[in-house]
Automatic annotation (TrEMBL), chain A:
<dbReference type="GO" id="GO:0016226">
    <property type="term" value="P:iron-sulfur cluster assembly"/>
</dbReference>
<dbReference type="GO" id="GO:0005634">
    <property type="term" value="C:nucleus"/>
</dbReference>
<feature type="binding site">
    <location>
        <begin position="66"/>
        <end position="73"/>
    </location>
    <ligand>
        <name>ATP</name>
    </ligand>
</feature>
<dbReference type="InterPro" id="IPR033756">
    <property type="entry name" value="YlxH/NBP35"/>
</dbReference>
<feature type="binding site">
    <location>
        <position position="29"/>
    </location>
    <ligand>
        <name>[4Fe-4S] cluster 1</name>
    </ligand>
</feature>
<feature type="binding site">
    <location>
        <position position="242"/>
    </location>
    <ligand>
        <name>[4Fe-4S] cluster 2</name>
    </ligand>
</feature>
<keyword id="KW-0004">4Fe-4S</keyword>
<dbReference type="InterPro" id="IPR027417">
    <property type="entry name" value="P-loop_NTPase"/>
</dbReference>
<feature type="binding site">
    <location>
        <position position="35"/>
    </location>
    <ligand>
        <name>[4Fe-4S] cluster 1</name>
    </ligand>
</feature>
Automatic annotation (TrEMBL), chain B:
<keyword id="KW-0547">Nucleotide-binding</keyword>
<dbReference type="GO" id="GO:0005524">
    <property type="term" value="F:ATP binding"/>
</dbReference>
<comment type="similarity">
    <text>Belongs to the Mrp/NBP35 ATP-binding proteins family. NUBP2/CFD1 subfamily.</text>
</comment>
<dbReference type="InterPro" id="IPR028600">
    <property type="entry name" value="NUBP2/Cfd1_eukaryotes"/>
</dbReference>
<dbReference type="GO" id="GO:0005814">
    <property type="term" value="C:centriole"/>
</dbReference>
<dbReference type="GO" id="GO:0005829">
    <property type="term" value="C:cytosol"/>
</dbReference>
<keyword id="KW-0004">4Fe-4S</keyword>
<feature type="binding site">
    <location>
        <position position="199"/>
    </location>
    <ligand>
        <name>[4Fe-4S] cluster</name>
    </ligand>
</feature>
<dbReference type="InterPro" id="IPR000808">
    <property type="entry name" value="Mrp-like_CS"/>
</dbReference>
Length: 322, 272
């Protein structure tokens, strides 16, 4: 049963929802009896199909935050670039931010749209070993808005996981939107029979961010998603002229370091604010290649190494024995 | 005949103007600017309300230092939380309804839609000059819900769109502009936040998040450019500590920028 059947009313909660058949919007829907009987809440067959697909993907990493604008997409993109710098590794980046897909621009793939909302789900390649998928590729114009409610977003995410021909991958990185809602629940649900290595949580130092990030961490704990560690982004700004450091986003409550201590998590590293990062993203270039000697690039490399080490050391016994 | 409409139509009846704060892009300062604009409007003598419909990341309670107050019900619905005894600034946020501030609101769209419907119609705002509605990033359930419910109750004056200068932001805000056009929501103007950083040590200006994108976006889309607000550690610290920046730093360039935007906004909604 499709998550939103074609004959469903406007505010259909989705056939797999707890409220299926029971909301006021369900009145009069031809599927109401079926939904309220619970028949549509049987496990989605897509979960097993996706698990099958994911057998050829060695490591799956989610990049989460809870807070918007902390640098999830920037980090996801540069994690992908760094992992793909080893030509023997196959890497893919999946952008499930349906409303605000930044990855095409950051990866230099803007303008790779296909005319009209296309069903074409072939990933685009930045390098031979670096594939990217985003709803951005399916939009015909930079002004196109994806004004979709939850159930329709979930359907797209299912398609991305099940119907994109990822092939054999060493790493699949999933960039997410801020929040703890449909996209996050769907990604975790659809990958529930495939093993996710873990989540990298991005924050900035100030409490306004940490407040939201703690909720994301609780979400991960609730759905039993392991947390690889936390990255503190925009961690101080060194003035290029006088070299003094300013804490533009001040760690008034101890920043990510104190949060990690309190929540027993690994602080993977801190990345300073560097105007050249934003510039690289705007131009679709890798900051790691553009400004390789900067403190920010060094911070990124160290963080990526920690993530790789985590992935390689947390392989389940059945896989490592074979 | 909609009985719900009849029962609830009182709650927004004495609210003169309703303005949405939108972006499309996360982390550009919607909540910060909603708070600052509310404080600026209050300073110029207006009675202001803030409705925070960011269910996953409700930031406004902390920014206004209201802590974890109990939310009471009256005959007309929920009583908003006031930041002062004069009741010049009223606030309703889901942050108030959570037992545990670190508790995640892990809800799918339909549940968010239902709560937002209640928030819009069941808060007893009383008399307000302006109600500002802070939203999460995106163009999804929350935005559709708040707009649909506001339209049933009240004329919506329009929306202010917040961006930061760089293309990665304006790229998302363009889509939000399309959302506004498609839903018939008047765009009151675009504000460019984090517009340059002046080093407090040597006064060198660094364009950390690039430059000029807000104005270009306004030109490209035929929207009004309301102005820019710089990156100011004094503002971010103020917001962190829930202090009234406007009272603490009335002479700062940042306050001047925010106040100018507030006054332009007021003129725009009072003379549509």
């Amino acid at each position: 049963m499709a998550d939103i059947p074609s004959d469903a009313p406007q505010h259909c909660p989705g056939t797999a929802s707890e409220q299926a058949g029971k909301t006021s919007a369900c009145q009069g829907c031809p599927n109401q009896n079926l939904c309220s009987s619970g028949a549509t809440k049987a496990p989605d067959p897509a979960i097993e199909e996706i698990a099958e697909k994911m057998l050829t993907v060695k490591h799956k990493i989610l990049v989460l935050s809870g807070k918007g604008g902390v640098g999830k997409s920037t980090f996801s993109a540069h994690l992908a670039h760094a992992l793909a710098s080893d030509a023997t590794k196959e890497v893919a980046l999946l952008d499930v931010d349906i409303c605000g897909p930044s990855i095409p621009r950051i990866m230099g793939l803007e303008g790779e749209q296909v005319a009209g909302l296309s069903l074409c789900l072939s990933p685009r390649y930045v390098e031979d070993n670096l594939a990217v998928m985003s709803i951005g590729f399916l939009l015909s114009s930079p002004d196109d808005a994806v004004i979709w409610r939850g159930p329709k977003k979930n359907g797209m995410i299912k398609q991305f996981l099940r119907d994109v021909d990822w092939g054999e991958l060493d790493y699949l990185i999933v960039d997410t939107p801020p929040g703890t809602s449909d996209e996050h629940l769907s990604i975790v649900q659809y990958l529930s029979s495939a093993r996710i290595d873990g989540a990298v949580i991005i924050t900035t130092p100030q409490e306004v961010s940490l407040q939201d990030v703690r909720k994301e961490i609780r979400f991960c704990q609730k759905v039993q998603l392991p947390i690889i560690g936390v990255v503190e982004n925009m961690s101080g700004f060194v003035c290029p002229k006088c070299k003094n450091t300013s804490q533009i986003f001040p760690p008034t409550t101890g920043g990510a370091e104190r949060m990690c201590e309190e929540m027993n998590l690994t602080l993977l590293g801190r990345v300073p604010l560097d105007p050249r990062i934003g510039k690289s993203c705007d131009e679709g270039k890798s900051f790691l290649t553009e400004v390789p000697d900067s403190p920010a690039a060094a911070a990124y490399h160290s963080i990526v190494q920690s993530i790789q080490a985590y992935c390689l050391s947390h392989v389940p016994r059945e896989e490592s024995a074979g | 005949f909609d009985v719900n409409l009849m029962l609830n139509c009182g709650n927004l009846a004495q609210v003169q103007h309703v303005v949405l704060i939108l972006s499309g892009k996360g982390g550009v300062g919607k909540s910060t600017l909603t708070t600052e604009l509310a404080l600026a409007l209050r300073h110029s003598g207006k009675k202001v309300g803030i409705l925070d419909v960011d269910l996953c990341g409700p930031s406004i309670p902390r920014m206004l230092s209201v802590g974890k107050p109990e939310v009471h019900q009256c005959d007309l619905g929920w009583v908003p939380v006031y930041t002062d005894a004069q009741k010049s600034l009223a606030l309703m946020s889901i942050g108030f309804l959570l037992e545990d501030p670190d508790e995640a609101v892990v809800w799918r769209g339909p549940k968010k839609t239902a709560l937002i419907g209640q928030f819009v119609s069941d808060v007893a705002w009383g008399e307000l000059d302006v109600l500002l509605v802070d939203t999460p990033p995106g163009t999804s359930d929350e935005h559709l819900a708040v707009l649909e419910n506001l339209k049933k109750q009240h004329k919506v004056d329009g929306a202010i769109l917040i961006t930061t200068p760089q293309a990665v932001s304006t790229g998302d805000v363009r889509r939000e502009i399309t959302f506004c056009k498609k839903t018939g929501l008047r765009i009151l103007g675009i504000v460019e936040n984090m517009s340059g950083f002046v080093c407090p040590h040597c006064s060198e200006c660094s364009n950390i998040f690039s430059k000029g994108g807000g104005e270009e976006l306004a030109k490209l889309t035929g929207s009004v450019y309301l102005g820019s607000v710089p990156l100011d550690p004094l503002l971010t610290t103020s917001i962190e500590e829930g202090k009234d920046f406007i009272q603490t730093f009335p002479d700062s360039a940042t306050f001047s920028a925010i106040n100018s935007i507030a006054q332009t906004l007021l003129t725009s909604i009072q003379n549509p």
